[in-house]
Design goal:
The complex is a heterodimer of chains A (679) and B (75).
Chain A lengths: L9 E6 L5 H9 L3 E5 L6 E9 L2 E7 L11 H11 L5 E7 L3 H4 L1 H6 L6 E6 L1 H6 L3 E2 L1 H8 L3 E3 L8 H14 L6 H11 L1 H9 L10 H9 L3 H10 L2 H12 L4 H17 L3 E2 L9 H6 L5 H15 L1 H13 L4 H10 L4 H38 L1 H14 L8 H9 L1 H7 L6 H11 L11 H9 L3 H27 L9 E4 L7 H33 L11 H13 L6 H9 L6 H11 L4 H7 L8 H8 L2 H12 L5 H11 L2 H29 L1
Chain B lengths: L1 E2 L8 E7 L3 H9 L7 E6 L6 E5 L2 E5 L1 H4 L2 E5 L2
Antiparallel strand pairs in B: 1-6, 2-3, 2-6, 3-4, 4-5
The chains are: A alpha/beta (679), B alpha+beta (75).
């Protein structure tokens, strides 16, 4: 092991899901954090720092996993990071209210030669449950600092800071004598045979005892590591020994839990209580009532997220009003017209879009972050597991899909509660299928214009197509994103309900909101500027704009899909804002107004006289093709931005965008040609 | 010895065996369901995942998975 005398110690946070790792990470670093990906992996990497007494501490938040086996990308990353020796100190978090289960991570870590402290988080909840934990006795048994505290309460961090300074100075490791003895007793000769074979000092900071445990578990990754340091002869011996082991992981886990029970026998005092489901959980997890309750709560959450969002969105909507005064002021000082136009239209609208977007994202994050924090989302995951697994998703994914009926921006933002990146991307890809509220500002208008009393049939058809679309899209994206071995059945913990920790929740959401705002401003500004240039005409005449010329030129192609050049341009504009479809049709068919204003500014109103023109210019089949093209197109620029924000991958955002562009045109094509046979 | 999903609500049982590849074993044990672990059955409805209580934790488990976990009912 290399001993670094670093002025900037690196601390790694390790713990099972729900142990409060992210809460501590946010509490320590605040806004001084950076979220990226682990090199070459799709797993999120969170790093940050905090400063105390002039010293800077770097903090790495490791992925939340239940153990240090090598069954998932997250676990391998966690293990490789610890083995790399990059961390000066590992903080293992355990949930004090479920201590014996939660200490499994510590038991799985024991034997790695990197200094460690044990954080007993949620000590307040354990105390409320009548549990008494003797931390100093546990500290004496383990030989490492043990710190009882509450990660959500920053006023208790002094004890944490003192603990890590002590650990960094003393560099103590976990006392594993008793654990090793248990492994030796259980594995009998095999343990000593392996010990004789592998390097006595272990490999790097992985001790011989730790390596033997993993070899018995048939851990391929560790086996590979060990093989490289052994001779051919020794490797043959190794294979012979290992082939005699059955159910190794079961037996080593047995040893680890025996060790934990031994640690806790005079450390943890608790009353025996007959466990039962609470009244609320009886409904929340009920075979019949669990799902309707979950949908009800999600819909209620969707509405509730507008309460914090509305003031922010209202503030955003005031921004375009600044256009007049700004234009006046700029004209007065003799600024060129084109600059005034850019500021007036592009800059102000970018601000408006970005603020409206973060308002809604903030609301969704707050409400659904709250539901996650109190423990309810795990119940949603449980009752919807069977249904969602048909799409290759975990149960929680139902929430972003339901939210997307309101707004796809919120759907994409809501995927934050899903911990796996791959599942998150697949959920977003599926959320785009769901027709959002803005769809209903367009579809009923056009379908009742063309189909009168039969208009509801169009809406039914949209829902049927959406159903098929979901399954096909799940197959296409699922095959790329979700590996077969990850489609494993449900094994999860339902955490106990907590009171919400508002401060900690707000802290993590505010950090995220600023991050989103800065990205959203960039993306929306660039796209708006490009769109503005395409629709720019100095004279106000539509026919000189690039978009108009492009539309006219490409009409021979678009007509194959049942789209006239006007409906095709309206379809393109609907990628920026769905409501724009009608406004742009108005400008194009009636030849008035600016295309840009029609796209970003219209609230789905029908321009006077548009219906008559539409009826004479479009066949019913072409109207239907347009309806399907717009409905299943990319939802809007802000949803695309939100997708980019949550996936953190330009590649996947563009893949999803390209897929929806192609499939919506394909649907328009099919609808147009099939309905031409009947209409 | 019987199958975990045959345990009735309100019964207490001890895990006596788990079958499966090392990946499955490690998933099941790392959430606390190891040999000798006492569990209480909380919810057991046909075609719906089980809910059980072990090591101070409510654990949800698919029926298919639970077929590979064997127990002895003790109360």
């Amino acid at each position: 092991m290399s001993i670094k005398v670093s002025k900037q110690p690196t601390i790694a946070l390790l713990g099972q899901p729900n142990s409060g790792k992210s809460t501590l990470f946010n509490g320590l670093t605040g806004a001084r954090q950076h979220v990226g990906n682990w090199p070459g992996k799709t797993v999120e990497k969170k790093e940050g720092y905090f400063e105390r007494n002039g010293r800077r501490y770097r903090v790495t938040d490791l992925p939340g996993t239940y153990s240090l086996s090598a069954n998932s990308e997250e676990e391998i990353i966690t293990r490789d990071y610890i083995a790399s020796g990059e961390a000066d100190l590992v903080c293992i978090l355990a949930d004090s209210s479920q201590l014996s289960r939660s200490l499994f991570m510590l038991a799985d870590y024991a034997g790695i030669q990197c200094p460690v402290v044990l954080l007993l988080n949620l000590i307040d909840i354990a105390e409320k449950q009548g549990k008494k934990i003797d931390a100093s006795k546990l500290e004496a048994k383990l030989g490492i600092p043990v710190i009882p505290f509450v990660a959500a309460d920053r006023s208790q961090y002094q004890i944490f800071y003192d603990g890590i300074d002590r650990a960094l100075a003393e560099k103590k490791m976990i006392n594993i004598d008793s654990l090793t003895e248990k492994h030796r007793l259980t594995a009998k000769d095999i343990y000593d045979q392996l010990l004789a074979l592998i390097p006595q000092k272990g490999i790097g900071n992985l001790s011989a005892s730790w390596l033997i445990g993993k070899l018995i578990e048939k851990d391929e990754n560790v086996l590979g590591k060990v093989k490289t340091v052994l001779s051919q002869d020794e490797n043959q011996k190794l294979s012979r020994i290992l082939s005699g082991i059955e159910n190794g992981a079961l037996h080593t886990a047995g040893c680890k839990f025996q060790w934990i029970d031994e640690l806790l026998n005079d450390v943890l005092v608790q009353k025996d209580k007959k466990p039962v489901l609470s009244k609320f959980d009886k409904i929340a997890t009920h075979k019949r009532w669990g799902k309707p309750l979950a949908i009800g709560i999600i819909l209620f959450g969707l509405i509730a997220s507008f309460i914090p969002a509305a003031p922010i969105m209202f503030f955003g909507s005031l921004i375009p009003m600044l256009g007049g005064p700004i234009a006046k002021a700029l004209t007065a000082i003799g600024a060129p017209d084109i600059l005034i136009a850019v500021i007036n239209q592009v800059v102000l609208n970018t601000l408006y879009f970005a603020i409206a977007m973060i308002g809604f994202v903030f609301g969704v994050n707050l409400i659904f972050g709250f539901l996650e924090e109190v423990g309810y989302m795990a119940r949603v995951s449980y009752v919807f597991n069977g249904t969602m697994s048909k799409l290759g998703l975990q149960g929680k994914s139902v929430m972003p899909l339901v939210v997307s009926f309101g707004c796809t921006i919120g759907g994409a933002a809501g995927t934050r509660v899903i911990d796996s990146w791959n599942q998150r991307v697949l959920t977003i890809a599926l959320a785009w299928v769901i027709p959002c509220a803005a769809t209903w500002a367009i579809v009923p208008v056009i379908s009742s214009l063309f189909f009168g009393a039969k208009a509801p049939l169009v809406i039914i058809a949209i829902f049927i197509v959406a159903g098929f679309h979901l399954f096909v899209t799940a197959k296409i994206f699922g095959s790329k994103l979700i590996r077969e071995e990850d489609r494993s059945g449900l094994i999860m913990e339902l955490p106990p309900y907590h009171k919400p920790r508002w401060r900690a929740l707000m802290r993590s959401i505010l950090v995220r909101t600023w991050d989103i705002l800065s990205r959203a401003l960039k993306v929306i500004f660039i796209v708006s500027l490009v769109f503005w240039l395409l629709t720019y005409s100095a004279s106000g005449n539509l026919e000189v704009t690039l978009l108009y010329k492009f539309g006219r030129a490409i009409e021979p192609v678009t007509i194959i899909f049942g789209l006239t050049w006007q409906t095709f341009l309206a379809y393109l504009a609907s990628m920026v804002s769905k409501e724009a479809a009608l406004g742009v049709l108005g400008s194009l068919y009636l030849g008035n107004g600016s295309l840009f204003t029609a796209t970003v500014g219209s609230g789905g109103q029908v321009a006077a006289g548009l219906d008559a023109v539409l009826l004479t210019s479009l066949t019913p089949a072409a109207a239907l093709a347009f309806i399907f093209a717009v409905t299943f197109n990319a939802p809007c620029l802000m949803a695309i931005t939100s997708t980019y924000q949550e996936t953190r991958s330009l590649k996947w955002t563009l893949r999803i965008l390209g897929y929806y562009f192609a499939t919506s045109l394909l649907l328009a094509f099919s609808v147009y040609h099939i309905s031409n046979l009947f209409l | 010895m019987q199958n975990l999903n045959e345990v009735k609500v309100g019964q207490k049982a001890v895990i006596t065996d788990v079958k499966g590849d090392s990946r499955f074993l490690s998933r099941v044990t790392s959430i606390g369901l190891s040999l000798g672990c006492e569990i209480d059955m909380l919810y057991n409805e046909k075609k719906f995942p089980l809910l059980l209580y072990g090591r101070d934790t409510v654990i949800a488990l698919n029926r298919e998975e639970s077929q590979n976990i064997f127990v002895e009912v003790i109360a």
